[in-house]
Specification:
Radius of gyration: 22 Å
Strand content: under 5%
Number of domains: 1
Number of strands: 0
Number of helices: 3
Distance between the termini: 59 Å
């Protein structure tokens, strides 16, 4: 089942810029969503908040055991 969403002409033109000849809006939006998911995953996996260097972690582990 399809649906319709209202977007501005400006946004429509920006979306079109991400597509290739023959691609539908759905094709383009699927690519954009997949790219956004990959970026979120990469950002999550590469987040260095609350991390310590491996050397420091090994030293702490040796002290514990």
């Amino acid at each position: 089942m399809n649906t319709t969403i209202a977007i501005s002409k400006e946004l429509r033109e920006e979306i079109i810029e991400f597509g290739s000849k023959g691609e539908t809006y759905e094709d383009i939006l699927k690519k954009l969503v997949q790219s956004a998911k990959e970026r979120q995953l990469r950002d999550l996996l590469m987040d260095e908040t609350n991390t310590i260097p491996v050397k420091e972690a090994l030293e702490k582990a040796k002290k514990r055991w």
